[in-house]
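Hypothesis: this fold can be encoded by more than one sequence.
Test: take the structure tokens below, design a sequence, compare later.
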């Protein structure tokens, strides 16, 4: 079976326990995470990520677009993540907290 959708840079997300990260390397891993392990209620960004990750797996979309959609879904869900932009380390990204 040919697997489409490998990402150039991984995305690590904190799903359940603080400090415990799951590293996602491809659109198929992202789809599995969205379907099996997503810790919050689904929203529009989540639904978009499902569609785009499936399209990337089928070769109908870019893996990097699927990665971006997955990042947006995690951001919108207030899931802490680390993005592999720096080779020696990850940059931590956390969504802003409401002021009220």
């Amino acid at each position: 079976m040919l697997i489409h959708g490998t990402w150039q840079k991984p995305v690590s997300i904190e799903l359940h326990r603080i400090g415990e990260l799951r590293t996602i390397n491809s659109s198929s891993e992202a789809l599995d995470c969205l379907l099996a392990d997503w810790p919050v209620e689904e929203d529009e960004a989540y639904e978009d990520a499902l569609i785009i990750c499936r399209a990337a797996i089928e070769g109908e979309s870019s893996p990097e677009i699927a990665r971006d959609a997955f990042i947006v879904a995690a951001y919108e869900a207030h899931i802490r993540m680390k993005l592999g932009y720096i080779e020696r380390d990850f940059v931590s990204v956390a969504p802003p907290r409401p002021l009220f």
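The beta strands are 6-14, 21-26, 81-86, 89-93. Residues 86-92 have pLDDT under 50 and may be disordered.
Hypothesis status: open.
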